[in-house]
Amino acid sequence: MIKPEGQKYIFDLPAADLKKLVQGIIWRDEHFDGMALKDIATRENCSQAYVGTAIFKSFDILQSV
Q1: Is 40 in a helix, a strand, or coil?
Q2: Rounded to an integer, what distance in angstroms lies between the CA atom of residue 19 and that of residue 48?
Q3: What burial class does residue 27 get, using C-beta atoms within 10 Å of its C-beta: 0-12 exposed, 13-18 middle, 19+ buried?
Q4: Tens digit of pLDDT for each residue in 1-58?
C-alpha cells in the first residue's frame, strides 16, 4: 500500500469537486431514504446519470481523504 505524503483535508478539494461531493452526499442520503434518482434529477434539473455519478464519486472522494 502506498500512503500519501502529508495529510489531505476535505476542504482542500477544488471547488467543483467539493460541490459534487456535497451534492453526492445529500443526494445519496435522499436516495437511501427512498427518493428515486429520477426524482432527484428532475428537481435539480440535471440528468439521472449526473446524480448517480455524484453519489458514487462522493464515496470515492471520502475514501481518498
Answers
A1: helix
A2: 17
A3: buried
A4: 555 566 667 778 888 888 889 999 999 999 999 999 999 999 999 999 999 999 998 8
